[in-house]
Amino acid sequence: MTSMEPQILFRNAILYDGSAGPPFAGDLAIGDGRILAMSAGEPLAEVHAEQEIDLSGKALAPGFIDAHTHDDRAVLDHPDMAPKISQGVTTVVTGNCGISIAPVSFEDAPPPPMNLLGGQSAYQFESMASYADALRRKRPCVNVVALVGHSALRLAVMDDVSCPATGDEIQRMRGLAARSMDEGASGFSTGLFYKTNEAADEREVAAVGEAISERQGIYTTHMRNEEDQVLDSIEESYRTARAARLPLLISHHKCANVGNWGRTRETLGLIERLRSRHPINFDVYPYAAGSTILREDLVTDKFRIVVTWSLPHPEMRGRDLSDVASDWGLSLLEAARKLNPAGAIYFQMHEDDVRRVMASEHSIIGSDGLPLDAHPHPRLWGTFPRVIGRYARDLGLFSMETAIHKMTGKTARIFGLRDRGFLRTGFAADLVVFDPATIIDRATYEHPERVSEGIEMVFVNGELACLDGSSTSAGSGRLLRGWREPAHA
Ligand code: ZN
Ligand code: CU
Questions:
Q1: Pairwise CA distance, residues 250 & 363, whole Å
Q2: pLDDT digits (tens, 9 = 90+) for 133-158
Q3: Residue 129: pLDDT band by 50, 70, 90 thresholds?
Q4: What is the mean pLDDT of residues 38-66?
Q5: pLDDT value, residue 346
Q6: Ligand lying nearest the CA atom of residue 226
Q7: In the predicted model, what is the mean pLDDT of residues 72-92?
Q8: How far is ligand 2, taken at its centre, from the CA of residue 70, in Å?
């Protein structure tokens, strides 16, 4: 037993410890931002604390880690982080899909997809150190794990990102990547699907990636293709990660477009085979629709498309592209052109594929929410309670402890967060109290900004950050650094 007097003692909790093991009844004491003691099956009889909270019937779990976000700016502009903290999220991984707020700035409007994080004024950080500094000043209520995006690096050093980088440009990107890691980043992301990144070949990605693996980082990728060539893209991701000796996390794994529905059987089989040679995992959100910028090459009449924002026509947010097109007497493509720059939700997946990916033992949960969107995809507000309440409890896709493992312990291991993700003595006191009987998402495609139900208390580094769905603006989050051993070549 520790000599320190605990600040809070939770009694009679159902403890989900972040492993995939079954829950157990017990007490847990925290103080000074850490878990000081916990028990299984019996009370912590000798422990006394300033405050005791009886949790009879309620679950206590490690705070959820959102493995895939675009919250780079949101944590500074909205440090109360309502969409995330209200779901029980205590850590967000930023800088995904090649898009990071640092180290880059722009003289004009940032090109898509960089505009997913904001306009020119959003990009104020020419170094990761200055971003880390801003986080210390703004004190968001969630922790941040920051990735460096390849598009950000390319735009920082290249005059023309439509070309492959030259040897000199690769050297400069490596330097910037290395420096970013030394200043607090935890890994590297690409978004080879996007214009600002697609000209990068495997050699360029691997060369920049080496600067990351030398500093114990991770590699996440929004692959070049999630449609007809999805298998090729998985092979490419594997080869580049292996060449750079980086553990690989495939972003928001999916098989998009009607012709590819059902093909997660193939992709998961391929990943399983490649895994025997190299560490590979993937993140997933619990919805059959994706969301990004409105891209003309994604416009189709095969599935529904909903406008999430539009610079010239903000009044069209939340409306179906097909309705906008018929109102205007235009084709879908012409309407998309008129709406741009804009964002959209694409109903491009099959529910069976979503479930298959979620049920795989190699998946972790990431919302991929877009906090700036005027009419966001509901994943921004609903992802975590939806996985637990709908997919685990109501549909029985997996156990509740498996659901929680995919958003806590497993995620912490993948990112190399050594003292998070599990209920263990000495670990950080990032905690969620929820009601296993009522937890559920309420955000929908029509009403995407509804707070989830059943999340009762959220603690970040020992401070109460959310009570009954409302942020307390505790401001106890900090920049975390993950450490992953380089994967063997
Ligand atoms: Zn992406
Ligand atoms: Cu993303």
A1: 9
A2: 999 999 999 999 999 999 999 999 99
A3: very high
A4: 96
A5: 98
A6: 1
A7: 98
A8: 6
Q: How far is the CA of 191 from the centre of ligand 1 (A)?
A: 6
221 C-alpha to ligand 2 centroid (Å)? 9
Q: pLDDT > 90: what percent of the chain?
A: 97
- Distance in angstroms (rounded) separating the CA atoms of residues 243 and 24: 43
pLDDT over 70 (residue 1): no
Average pLDDT over residues 331-359: 98
Ligand 2 midpoint to CA 166 (Å): 27
The Cα 76–Cα 97 span in angstroms is 20
Task: Compute, in angstroms, the gap from residue 272 CA to the centroid of ligand 1.
Answer: 22
Q: Cβ contacts of residue 332 below 8 Å, gap of 6+? A: 299, 300, 301, 305, 321, 322, 325
Enumerate residues with CB within 5 Å of ligand 2 (an ion). Answer: 96-97, 368
Going from the Cα of 96 to the center of ligand 2, the distance in angstroms, rounded, reads 5
How high is the pLDDT of residue 3?
A: 58
Token pair of 119, please? 């306009």
Rounded mean pLDDT of 465-473? 94
Residue that is written with structure tokens 């290395």 in the block: 178
69 CA distance to ligand 2 centroid (A)?
6
pLDDT band at 2 (very low <50, low <70, confident <90, very high): very low
3-state SS record for the chain: CCCCCCCEEEEEEEECCCCCCCCEEEEEEEECCEEEEECCCCCCCCCCCCEEEECCCCEEEECEEECCCCCCCHHHHCCCCHHHHCCCEEEEEECCCCCCCCCECCCCCCCCCHHHCCCHHHCCECCHHHHHHHHHHHCCCCEEEEEEEHHHHHHHHCCCCCCCCCHHHHHHHHHHHHHHHHCCCCEEEEECCCCCCCCCCHHHHHHHHHHHHCCCCEEEEECCCCCCCHHHHHHHHHHHHHHHCCCEEECCCCCCCHHHCCCHHHHHHHHHHHHCCCCEEEEECCCCCEEEECCHHHCCCCCCEEEEEECCCHHHCCCEHHHHHHHHCCCHHHHHHHHCCEEEEECCCCHHHHHHHHHCCCEEECCCCCCCCCCCCCHHHHHHHHHHHHHHHHCCCCCHHHHHHCCCHHHHHHHCCCCCCCCCCCCECCEEEECCCCCECCCCCCCCCCCCECEEEEEECCEEEEECCEECCCCCCCEECCCCCCCCC
Mean pLDDT value of segment 305-320:
98
Mean pLDDT of all residues in the chain? 97
pLDDT at residue 376, as a whole number: 98
